[in-house]
Amino acid sequence: MTTNREWVLAERPAGEPDLDCFDLQETEVPDPNPGELLVRTRFLSVDPYMRGRMRDAESYAEPWDVGDVLRGGIVGEVVESASDAYDAGDLVTGEGTWGDYAALDADEVTPVDPAVADPKAYLGVLGMPGRTAYFGLLEVGEPKPGDTVVVSGAAGAVGSVVGQIAKRNGCRVVGFAGSDEKTSWLTDDLGFDAAINYKTTDDYRGALESAAPDGVDVYFDNVGGPITDAVFTRLNLDARVAVCGQIAHYNDEEVPTGPRKLPQIIAPRARVQGLLVSDFASRFGEASERLGKWVASGELEHRETVVEGLENAPDAFLGLFAGDNIGKQVVRVSSPAE
Amino acid sequence: MTTNREWVLAERPAGEPDLDCFDLQETEVPDPNPGELLVRTRFLSVDPYMRGRMRDAESYAEPWDVGDVLRGGIVGEVVESASDAYDAGDLVTGEGTWGDYAALDADEVTPVDPAVADPKAYLGVLGMPGRTAYFGLLEVGEPKPGDTVVVSGAAGAVGSVVGQIAKRNGCRVVGFAGSDEKTSWLTDDLGFDAAINYKTTDDYRGALESAAPDGVDVYFDNVGGPITDAVFTRLNLDARVAVCGQIAHYNDEEVPTGPRKLPQIIAPRARVQGLLVSDFASRFGEASERLGKWVASGELEHRETVVEGLENAPDAFLGLFAGDNIGKQVVRVSSPAE
Known about the structure:
Chains A, B: GO terms for molecular function: oxidoreductase activity, acting on the CH-CH group of donors, NAD or NADP as acceptor. Chains A, B: This is Alcohol dehydrogenase zinc-binding domain protein. Chains A, B: It holds the Pfam family ADH_N_2. The structure is a homodimer of 338-residue chains. In chain A, strands 3, 4, 5, 6, 7, 15 and 16 form a 7-stranded mixed beta sheet that branches. Chain A has a 6-stranded parallel beta sheet with strand order 10-9-8-11-12-14, with helices on both faces. In chain A, strands 1-2 form a two-stranded antiparallel sheet. In chain A, helix 9 links the parallel strand 15 and strand 16 (328-332). Chain A has 9 helices and 16 strands. Chain A folds into 2 domains: 4-124 and 302-332, Alpha-Beta Complex (Quinone Oxidoreductase, Chain A, domain 1), CATH 3.90.180.10; 128-278, 3-Layer(aba) Sandwich (Rossmann fold). Helices cover 24% and strands 28% of the residues of chain A. The mean pLDDT of chain A is 96. With 338 residues, chain A is an alpha/beta fold.
């Protein structure tokens, strides 16, 4: 068996992270303990929330220390099994490392079925982002038929699923995204009613008045910043805001300032709620079953942006903040034929 | 019957209102139509939300036009009845005018029982502010025994009731108020566990760390501004924020800015919700019954600050923004013996 390579946190980023924050180290391929699987990574997920783990501050996800191996969702092939539950050759998904190989507890992975979708989709629409969209929209956003649902980061892994589920529920759906290629994907392929390219639009509020003329009933926010400021001026009575991400602010070193929103939510009696998918863990089976069915039938579109090679994982991560990805950003670490 | 006097909106305030915004006019004492009561005002309520009605902007309460008679909650004595429901001499409460007399629809007033409390309490603890506290805390704040509940504007008409109901529900209660007299009232008479004088404290966050060492489970916000900024840094998992008022911002001419709060509510999955008491109108009977019982038994303390004379009603209103009131601010317009 070859050596393993793993990315570690070389230094904590100050503001925007760069490649100096990452160091690729040669390590040993682990031996699986009883109950564990040795998994060779096929695809690694990079996600905006990882920026928070690079900070020296307690939050929902434990902070990484300098020198720690970076972790994240992976899809991989079992190369050695010390568990009755899986055999060598099985494809699984779970939390692994930014590395070639990882030993994972068999109880903490789930099977990947290539008949349902390409394995990398298990890091996106069929993984944590898809479940975040599913529960965040349905349980926090509570869309009703006829509602106008606005999504920021709409062409991302979460937002693209949010919009499609909202359409299934009979809503008018408006997305903010950062390129014409993205907005075209939203309206032409995913069925969004309107999409706003926030990089070529100055007047977000004006754009919303056209795209969401009846106001906003549900806002699913992945971004924050000026997009969110505009949406808050258009909230309808009893509006619901699901705050899933605030990527515009993840690299801020100081607490960011902006228009105060509490004075804006009294008249519409809006409900603004922070969202973490782990709160719905007891219902992940329900989400996986429904999302899998929609994906397999082609009713739910998905896309992944692939960066090739473990050595480019930091670039893939940094690209999230530049909006390089359409759909889910993954890193291809190995291929079946290798 | 004497002439009537009524305050009208003389001009819209720009920023902080002043006496030039108000004009006291002599008008006719109205004749009650069938179903109406002619009511002589005993007490008039001035409330922060009225500032919003002076603005030329649609909101939950219709804006007043320049020249309009100002309206508000009153307690008064029926001097002439064109309804079977009330007789001359009855005390009632309802929405009247900033005036000596008003004709009110008998269906839209409720009786005042001086055996339960002094009539002016029907504009505070037994009126709209008390019901706001009751539904806002219980239905939006959802306090559980052992929770830490923080209240801004804690010595006001709403906040003082919020804190006492939270204590009844087994919570630790911390209030922000603007004078030592107010904080003493909260801790010595109302049973608050701690109170912070925000006018003599620089470090609100530090004061909260001492007063609410286990963090904040429920925040009932009447004020906004730096107090609210500090509380948002201390929200616990699943915290609830009831946004009842934002008096610190009512005189702002531009949209106020401050620390962004959406990034702060993801980790605690906090729920932040705008609150208007009118949404609970179908349950006002329940609130009145319970609040009346607690007041009559002395379990629920209340206080009113009285400004004497209809001619001083604008001063009473302006005093709200300076924090002149302890408990409910009312104006005495007439007395029984007059």
